[in-house]
Structure formats: structure tokens, C-alpha cells
Amino acid sequence: MDMEKVVSLCRRRGFLFQSSEIYGGLNGFWDYGPLGVELKRNVKEAWWRDMVATHDDLGTLPGAPSPYDMVGIDCTIIMHPQVWKVSGHYDLFIDEMVDCRTEGCKGRFRVDHLAGSECPLKPSKPAGGSDKCSLTEPREFNLMFKTTLGALGGEEDTAYLRPETAQGIFVNFKNVVDSSRVRVPFGVAQQGKSFRNEITPRNFTFRSREFEQMEIEFFCHPDTSRQWYEFWRDRRMQWYKDLGLAGDRLRLRDHDPDELSHYSTGTADIEYAFPFLSEGEYGELEGIAHRGDFDLRSHMEGKLDPKTCPLTVEQGDDGKPRHRGSGRDLTYRDDLTNERFTPHVIEPSAGADRATLAFLCEAYTEDEAPDEKGKMQTRTLMRFHPRIAPIKAAVFPLVKKDGMPEVAQDLYKALKKKFPAVYDAGGAVGRRYRRQDEIGTPYCITIDGQTLQDQTVTIRDRDSLEQVRVKLDDTVAEVERRITA
Ligand code: ATP
């Protein structure tokens, strides 16, 4: 799979465009075109449907009395600045960056993206005659975008665009418990934009400055938290497999103990071997973390304990911690056992754009297929899982006469009521098939002379190229059955 070919198809067929392209683009920002928006919506809808709406189908822990609760939430992008102080982002959401000092190079890099101490741009003849670029000392850089609230714009009016959606869930924990009759264990799901002022946005949408996350915070009893962590890790891995990332390009990687955050007793990444990475390298699609009671406790108490939060123990003049928590009681009382405890949290945190990019890369295929004259030709197709394919069906009248367009139009309208479909009457049928293959439409339906005699149509399968005749009246149901199978 060649990344340049994927990028070129995305642009040519309207999946992704550079943001503000007519002004030269803006680094780290991407727009989804007409097909891209359908694809990404389908990815997000599949996540919501599988994780929230029909989550009972995922099963539960062995021996657990009943399925757990799962609800959604939609929080604001700008939150109270104290949220980010207490979460640790204000002090710790930092990357180290270096600049290249060599004249004419102008490189700026995240330290952990450097291979050794070399400038990755390696200009062929750096000024000054030296073979090597010279880099500045690393400097710290906070990734949160700042903005200003209100008209006066003083320092105290500084606010931040959220760098993750998770905090909106933590600060609403009590609201959700009090308003929605959920009982621990339960999960709260959220999808939405997040912003990070990445030093080196790159690799298409993989590392953007504005992106969308799909996050779950799952609140459970400390005694069962380890089992719930394993439950979510395995369920989330299965989700990607079910939607088509089934090959060995997908892997689950448990973090080594020295990689874990100070509060985490287990973290795993779901990773994909994106084609822009070197052989053997994988990029993160999603992290599943056991976060203990770190988040709820921080929002109650602020940063107090030097063992759990070594960098924010600095005290204010009043002897209290610098970043004070809300002081609200975010513990939970089990009304059956009367036990009061601070729930532990399991966090499956995915990126909608990275998942969409992985599905695009995985779908890109070139094979050999016969053209109209039976001659084998190279064919480009996007093998999307039918659930996420942007267009589910295309309808072709074989010729633009003899009543075929009218029958085809009626069928197209009926299909369109159920899911995105297209009508295409232009050019040879073989060429129309190719157009749909290239955007990943799983089913093409042709209305031909026989349709007018016996009221049947052909449905052609994108991947197997198999064509079957079905009754015209059964076509919508048949396509629907295949998409949801
Ligand atoms: P990375 O190490 O690649 O920067 P991260 O570990 O900081 O990622 P998290 O904070 O765990 O990422 O965010 C959860 C998910 O959000 C990631 O798995 C990824 O899918 C997505 N994500 C994070 N940063 C970006 C970004 N800059 N562009 C696109 N998606 C992102």
C-alpha cells in the first residue's frame, strides 16, 4: 500500500482536502470533502451505536449480575480554566522542541520525533560548510491553544481550547449520577473536537492540530477495575477488527511498567502500521488506560499528594495546593451495599480522524478485473466494510432509453430514503463500475432489458465481482440486509 496513492485518491475523489487550500493551506488542519464526511460520520456512528446504543450486545464481566449502564454527553470545547490546572494539562501537557540553527533549514521538531541528535531535514549543503545541522537546546512548549474570554482580554480572561474531551466527563460525573439513574459500573461516552498545538503536525490527518476524539470514561468499583480494564481493552480491539482492520497491520500493545503514568496500573495501545511509517513501526489509534481514582480525586481535592502528583505540590501563600480542586464530593454511594467509594476509571480514548485514516489506508486496493471487452485491467478499489462505506449503492440504467431511466430513478429514490445512494447514467457500464469501485460503493445495481420483461435487476458485489439477479421489489431490502449482515 502506497501512502501517496491513498492521499491522491482522497483528494481526487473528495475524501480530504487541505484546510484553506486556495490560500496555500494551513499546516495541521484538514477538511473532509463530500465522501470523507460520510465516511467519518459512519465511523463515529458505528462507535456510538456499538458502544452506547447497543452496548448490551458487548456482554459484561463473567458473573456480573446485569449489563452495565452506558450514557452519552456533549460538553463545551472551552471549559473553566481551573479544569486544566487540576487535570495536570496546564503544567504537564508539554512537549520538548528544538529548532535547527543551520541557515536555510528552518526545521522545528519535537524532541521525541528526532532520530538521535540529527536534524531530520539534513539539508544537502548546510551553510558554513559543516555537514551537520546544529540544533538548539530543547525548550518546553505547552500544547494547549489559548484564547481570551470577553472584550477586555486580561490575563485572568485566558481560557483554553480543550486538548481532550475526557475532562468534560469527569467534571460532570456528579451531574450524570444525580440525573440519570445510572449505577456503578457505568460508562459515559463523548465525541467531539479537541485541539493540540502540535509542534510538528504531519502524516496527513494522523497528527493534526484540530481533530475529533471518541472517548469513554467507565466508572467502576476498585475491586473489579482490573477486570473491566481487560474487558474494554479486548472489546475495543474487536471493534476495529469487526470493521475491517483485521490483518496483521493492527496490533494491541500493552505498555511496559516503565511506560505507565504514575496513576495507571495498566495501559494498552491499539496500533496500526500506517503506510507512511517505516517497516515495523506502528501508530496509535487508541489508548485504553486504567486511571484508578486519579481524575475524580483531583477534581475533588486538587493536587495534594506528592506521591501521585509530584509536579504540582507547589503551595500557594495560604499553604493550600496551588491548583485547588472543586471541593465537591465526587464519591459514590452504592445504595444496595451502602458502601461509599471513589470509583476507578477505565478510559478507552480513540481518535475519529486516525480511525478514519486507518480505514482509508486499509481499504485501498489494486487488483486485476476484466473491462467491458473482457480484457484484464488494473482496478483501484476501496474495500470499505459496508457499514462505513460512504455510498452504499449505485443505480445504473443500462441505456438512457426504453423506460430504463424511469425504473432506475424510482429504485434510486427508494434506496436513498434508507441510505446514501447515487444514480449514474453516464458512459459505459464498465466505466461506471470503476467509478464506484474507486470510492468503495459495495453494491451496483443495473436496470437492463430483462428488468423490463421480468422485473429483476442485477446486484454486483464490489469485492467478488459476483452478479446476482434479484426481484426489483426486493432490491432495497436485499441491499439493506447485506449492509447490516
Ligand atoms: P500521540 O502520542 O500520537 O501524540 P497521545 O498518546 O498523546 O497520541 P491521547 O492523548 O491518548 O494521544 O489521545 C487519544 C487519541 O486521540 C489518540 O489515540 C489519537 O487517536 C487521538 N489523537 C491525539 N492527538 C491527535 C492529533 N494530534 N491528531 C489526530 N488525532 C490525535
Keywords:
485 residues, alpha+beta, BirA Bifunctional Protein, domain 2, Rossmann fold, 2 domains, seven-stranded mixed sheet, five-stranded mixed sheet, 13 helices, 23 strands, 27% helix, globular, binds adenosine-5'-triphosphate, Glycine--tRNA ligase, ATP-binding, protein biosynthesis, nucleotide-binding, bis(5'-nucleosyl)-tetraphosphatase (asymmetrical) activity
Ligand kinds: adenosine-5'-triphosphate
Q: Name the CATH homologous superfamily of the largest domain.
A: Bira Bifunctional Protein, Domain 2
Shape: globular
Q: What is the β-strand count?
A: 23
Low-confidence stretches: 304-313
CATH C-level category of the largest domain: Alpha Beta
CATH fold-level assignment of the largest domain? BirA Bifunctional Protein, domain 2
Question: Which structural class best describes the helix and strand composition?
Answer: alpha+beta
Describe this structure in a few short sentences.
The chain is an alpha+beta fold.
